[in-house]
Write a structure and sequence with these properties.
This protein is mainly alpha-helical and 426 residues long. It has 3 domains: 108 residues, no CATH class; 209 residues, no CATH class; 97 residues, no CATH class. The chain contains 16 helices and 9 strands. Helix 4 packs across helix 8 and helix 6 packs across helix 7.
Length: 426
């Protein structure tokens, strides 16, 4: 902890560094526990909604050394910092100014993933989609360096986004480790991780580091500027000007976390190839982060056009998959009525597999099998109106039509207006 003293002093603000309750105790590896707390002075209070941004920025200032579990609003640090009067302790008090909370929040917004939930303050809110969580897990290593604590934190993050429905995604990630026990892993996920204060945003942030490190390993920052991203290029003069402005404001916000060089052999073992690793990095940044962050990512690294195209293509496929929401996609050119046979074929296939409870009763009546309350029992309901049939089918089938300019349109009931209004050429 006290190795951070030069970094804290460089911020120029009032600060205190003090040892934790376990300071000086022996570690399992034979060393000593040397953790503690850092207190930084700010110019105002902040709201619970802004807490994650402030803490993300503060963690970044300190070189990403903070325990993310200790950054929760629910944590109250400092109550127990000494075991007894004779326990080993240490404290450093630093004089100075104060940090700008506004600047910290602004900086934190560039670090914390964009929430997609309607209620961003509720832990029960589904902050990330299934596709986003699958992408994040794909990029986070699960090898011999993954200890029990990291494993449990990852499980908690998946649960915070997907609940019990996220078990298949977590099990796929867990199975990449030789120590994976299917029965134990499932029991732990379903029974022990719901209350872990390490959520999907933390996991997505960690995956972003992985994506940046991959791009830095294969294609470190160069002078090449991608077409359309010229305005994102940061010159040395701009960096110096920004640093002078930070010092004048006393904001204490340096450049973002420096990327690391990774072991290429481990990346190949994890992704299958170097190209696959870079494709994942681009797809993840495009899918899980804002357009501004994605543009900055592309301008910071010399990502080849082929890798960028492959990554963006995969991101587009994932977005289409989310819109389809598990329904059968029927690819059809031209008018939907001209392809009614394809739609009927998809419906019949679902019926034959038992995935759609739809059948004919008598000579002309179409009947839908509707499950009872909480899945108990079932009853056959006659469909007498075409609108009712269309509603049932829209839950199971999506028709993707290709327009003349080759742009893709997905037609369905629930997302139709939003998707059509946001898809170029539709």
């Amino acid at each position: 902890m006290f190795d951070l003293e030069p970094t804290v002093r460089a911020l120029g603000c009032q600060a205190t560094i003090y040892s934790s309750h376990s300071f000086g105790l022996p570690r399992d590896d034979g060393g000593q526990k040397l953790g503690g707390r850092v207190v930084l002075a700010g110019d105002r209070e902040w709201t619970p909604d802004d807490h994650r941004f402030v803490m993300a920025a503060a963690n970044n200032l300190l070189g990403d050394r903070a325990d993310t579990q200790a950054m929760s609003i629910a944590q109250a640090m400092g109550a127990f910092v000494r075991r007894s009067p004779n326990a080993v302790t240490k404290r450093v008090v630093i004089d100075g100014g104060v940090l700008s909370i506004d600047k910290l929040i602004e900086h934190g917004r560039s670090l914390v993933p964009v929430r997609s939930a309607a209620n961003p303050t509720s832990r029960e809110a589904r902050t990330r989609t299934r596709a986003e969580m699958e992408l994040a897990l794909e990029g986070i290593p699960n090898d011999e360096t993954t200890d029990y604590n990291k494993w449990m934190l990852t499980a908690g993050a998946v649960y915070s986004a997907l609940g019990e429905d996220g078990l298949p995604q977590f099990m796929v990630w867990s199975a990449r480790n030789a120590k994976h026990d299917p029965d134990r892993s499932e029991a732990k996920y379903l029974n022990d991780v719901a209350g872990i204060e390490y959520d999907a945003d933390d996991l997505t942030w960690k995956a972003r580091w992985c994506a940046e490190d991959i791009a830095h390993t294969f294609h470190p920052a160069g002078t090449r500027v991608l077409p359309g991203f010229e305005e994102s290029q940061v010159t040395p003069e701009m960096r110096e000007a920004a640093e002078r402005a930070n010092q004048a404001l006393g904001a204490g916000i340096p450049m973002k976390r420096a990327p690391k060089m990774l072991d290429r052999a481990k990346l190949v073992a994890q992704f299958g190839s170097e190209d696959a690793a870079l494709t994942w990095a681009v797809a993840f940044m495009r899918t899980c982060w804002s357009d501004q962050v994605y543009r900055s990512f592309l301008s910071a690294y010399a990502v080849p056009a082929q890798a960028m195209e492959a990554g963006e293509g995969r991101a587009a496929q994932l977005r289409e998959k989310e819109i389809a929401a598990g329904r059968v996609i029927v690819e059809a050119a031209g008018n939907i009525h001209e392809n009614i046979e394809r739609v009927c074929g998809a419906v019949l296939d679902l019926v034959s597999k038992g995935e759609l409870g739809l059948f004919q009763q008598g000579g002309s009546v179409v009947v839908h099998v509707r499950k009872g309350h909480r899945g108990r029992g079932a009853k056959a309901v006659a469909i007498t109106e075409p609108a009712a049939l269309r509603t049932i089918l829209s839950k199971h089938v999506v028709v993707k039509s290709i327009t003349k300019d080759r742009s893709v349109t997905t037609r369905c009931t629930r997302e139709r207006e939003h998707y059509l209004s946001s898809t170029p050429g539709c």
